[in-house]
Amino acid sequence: MEVYIRKVAYHETDKMAITHHSNYIKWLEEARVFLLEKIGTPFEEIERRGIASPVVGINIQYKKTTTFGDVVEIHTKVKKYNGVKLELEYEIINQATGELAASASSSHCFIKDEGLCSLKKADPEIHDKLQAAIDAEEK
Amino acid sequence: MEVYIRKVAYHETDKMAITHHSNYIKWLEEARVFLLEKIGTPFEEIERRGIASPVVGINIQYKKTTTFGDVVEIHTKVKKYNGVKLELEYEIINQATGELAASASSSHCFIKDEGLCSLKKADPEIHDKLQAAIDAEEK
Amino acid sequence: MEVYIRKVAYHETDKMAITHHSNYIKWLEEARVFLLEKIGTPFEEIERRGIASPVVGINIQYKKTTTFGDVVEIHTKVKKYNGVKLELEYEIINQATGELAASASSSHCFIKDEGLCSLKKADPEIHDKLQAAIDAEEK
Amino acid sequence: MEVYIRKVAYHETDKMAITHHSNYIKWLEEARVFLLEKIGTPFEEIERRGIASPVVGINIQYKKTTTFGDVVEIHTKVKKYNGVKLELEYEIINQATGELAASASSSHCFIKDEGLCSLKKADPEIHDKLQAAIDAEEK
């Protein structure tokens, strides 16, 4: 579990005076990037090795609104990883109140040379690091 | 079913040279606004009457990428409406290829005077129009 | 002079209940893309030919606020073009009131093979079309 | 002079594989918010007191591109303040290279009760703090 911390920007609010819901999708990405860096497989490195990992699905439930100036903690963990598909789970917590602002999950595939690939085969080094991080987490 | 048509902007792409996935969430909102206008209950009017309708959940599956210059059709319909909760379904089609780029659903509640409300009670006129549009659709 | 027409989206507003000022920068880009298409040198085509045209500067003056649902007209014209640098001028008009919402200018260079280039030399065909459109405009 | 530090997010890139230029406009806002907080007049507090401070103009020159994963430092200072108008200057530096990525300025007015106001008269307390911070800076 990694915790990415972020302040809500003014430009992320909308005319209801709350954070526009589309920004949470961007935050999930930022939290993913943060997680991958923390576990030693930075996304920049994955991309440099010719692998892309696009989003194939997102499910998000908005629980409590947040707004400009709020600090949110995004708790991220790997829910499932089998070399071919990666699923992450997120909880977005309003730091000041401790309330759950949103819970979400995202799923991802891996692409190399413009086709779907198994990360396990396409890049065993990255795969092993990712797998080790997941195993360590579960202990 | 209403069809909202939109061209992918350059600023909506990311370094994978595809539309960044967070923009689809904005497109769903644009398609919702378009639908509400078409059925005679424009969102501007709903807001003027003191009612907000925040997003409580989104589920989206990305099927095929799109990119700058692509024209997308967003087919939107009401999946469920009971006066208290509204659920919409969307299909995002790449107009040139006819391929399904993404399918999604969103759910919404209604807020008046800072609390949850039944649109049926809070604003029967809007409720009736919405209900009539849904009934007409189903025939 | 080309006129690009656009409706302000809900997701473009901020907590002041007006269009967030950063979105106007995106609109300028959309208006540029529209202009280039209209004069027969679509940006997609320019990029396909290996030429990029990044923004090197923007100046914008915000005159009147706009908000969700407003329709804006963006009047765009080439202010200066010499084969190496391109300058555009924009007026953003609120269609309902006729008021000037913002005036802006942007300047652009041309890049080929990762270095600055003269479009006149790098791609005479695109250059000639662009020049002809500017000449026609000035008559 | 305050220095706001920020990492470029993946969602801020475009298909040229660089940070999309519109995001710099958002960063300027984040740097302003950071500056105001540092000098003891947080924007949240200004807004709570019924004062808005919209952007009336922006001038930005893009010097060097940045991209996903780059860390940028935004050096911000008050260029001019006379109680009625506020002008800020910014330098966006790529932290790893020390290169100037962009330089910019923004100007702002003050609004109370939906009309232009002098901050000096409308809220002497905020004005005095802002003035003191500027005076301290100049020494």
The rounded distance between the terminal residues' Cα atoms of chain A is 12 Å
In terms of quaternary structure, the protein is homotetramer
Helix content of chain A: 25-40%
Radius of gyration of chain A: 16 Å
Query: On the 0-100 scale, what is the average pLDDT of chain A?
Result: 95
The largest pleated sheet of chain A is described as:
5 strands, antiparallel
* Number of extended strands of chain A: 8
Going by helix content, strand content and strand pairing, the class of chain A is: alpha+beta
Helix/strand order of chain A: EHHEEEEEEEHH
Tally of helical segments of chain A? 4
* Beta strand % of chain A: 35-45%
Spatial strand order of the main sheet of chain A: 1-4-5-6-3
Which pair of chains forms the biggest interface, and how many residues does each contribute? A-B, 19 and 19 residues
The low-pLDDT segments of chain A are: none
Principal-axes shape call of chain A: elongated
